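Note to self: the last two entries modelled the partners one at a time, which told us nothing about the interface. This time every component goes in together.
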Amino acid sequence: MRIFVLTGAGVSAESGLGTFRDKAGTGIWARFDPMKLATPEAFAADPDTVQAFYNARRRNLVEAEPNAAHAALARLEREFAAHGGRLVLVTQNIDDLHERAGSSDVIHMHGELLKSRCTRCGTVAPERGDLGPHSVCLACGEIGTLRPHVVWFGEMPLEMERIEDELLRADLFVAIGTSGSVYPAAGYVSLARDAGIATCEINLEPSDNAFLFDERRYGPASEAVPAFVD
Ligand code: BV8
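The predicted structure of the combined assembly is written out below.
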């Protein structure tokens, strides 16, 4: 049995990380609008504000802990592997909570907050601190060329070929904690349906494309995901 799981910001919401579309969010989400800041144009126009947005999220993340939803998915991966199955975990999230909960081989299609990328030499390196105009690329020595290694709106998501290949080999497609509002991730449920793959949505409330799912389970991820796994 092969299961393909796609997660979004809702799986990390109970770990204290903001989601994209709940304006009722706390802290950074009140001050920064991700839809205006997660773009290459915003970074070119005002790099300090964009860096501050990601620096604040990086500081938030190092203080955050995985929640029961992350732990349940790591457990499911182990149990599947022990019985000859395979769980492929693709996340839209840029946090490392899946990894910290024990998931291995997580595909981050929108990049990773705890990595930087040099705009001069392209080197991707671990980054837990703040990025800014004084940051130095340890590979090429340039100063001020490091950006967050995340995929902004208008930029190509990562590992798309591998993701679509894994999706089409799955027996079950499960979307967890995503509003289904950003493409190409939001289109994966249609790809699955067209390939005759069973689909399930686990979310706090119906997503934008809830009608496309065969099965729907609602509730906070920290309760709904362990219940699904058990
Ligand atoms: C692309 C990383 C081309 C950065 C993100 C005009 C110009 C250019 C492109 C476009 C355009 N118009 C449209 C597009 C395409 C665009 C797009 O889809 N725009 C939308 C707004 C219409 N997409 C892109 O630009 C993508 N690239 O198109 O390249 C291409 C494409 C295909 C093939 C070739 C070329 C790149 C998009 C990636 C942008 N980067 N993140 C960062 O994190 O700062 S997007 C960001 O928002 C997330 O990564 C995620 O992907 C996306 C959606 O967020 P969700 O994860 O779903 O979170 P959200 O808050 O929306 O929902 C949370 C859900 O959880 C809710 O349903 C809520 O009810 C639920 N929830 C809340 N609490 C809980 C819960 N569930 C359970 N338990 C809880 N406790």
